[in-house]
Specification:
This protein is an alpha+beta fold. It has helices at residues 12-22, 41-46, 65-75, 87-111; strands at residues 2-6, 26-30, 54-57, 60-63. Strands 2-1-3-4 form a 4-stranded mixed sheet, with helices on one face. Helix 1 runs parallel beside helix 3 and helix 1 packs antiparallel against helix 4. It is globular.
């Protein structure tokens, strides 16, 4: 089972969408950046940089949304997330990659150092 660490309204939404589309077994862990929860022991044990999103897997942890998306897609080939044969799913996968880049930038601009570009991705 995967564990997705995230804060609301950032590029982690793209990973969440792809996990859902893949039918992957996962759970989410909301990290409260306003209270500096990313500096607490559990999130730091997963990612010592204290950034999100982070996907904890049986093989270790992954950071950076594009890497998370491209890690999940081939693990669930039946979901055809990046398949040219299933245009609808492929389109949603591509849309998720756009979401992660655009939302990340917008969040960084809106929030500045408060959980923005330095802490998300």
């Amino acid at each position: 089972m995967f564990r997705l660490y995230y804060i609301s309204g950032i590029c982690a939404l793209a990973t969440h969408i792809v996990l859902e589309e893949a039918g992957a077994p996962y759970e989410t862990v909301l990290v409260d950046f306003h209270s500096q929860a990313q500096r607490s022991p559990e999130p730091l044990a997963v990612n010592p940089k204290g950034r999100v999103p982070v996907l904890a897997t049986e093989s270790g942890t992954l950071t950076k949304t594009p890497a998370l998306l491209f890690f999940v897609a081939p693990l669930f080939p039946n979901a055809e997330l990046a398949s040219s044969q299933n245009r609808s799913r492929s389109h949603r996968f591509r849309s998720s990659t756009v979401i992660c880049s655009m939302v990340h930038v917008a969040h960084g601009i809106a929030c500045g150092a408060q959980g923005g570009a330095d802490n998300a991705a």
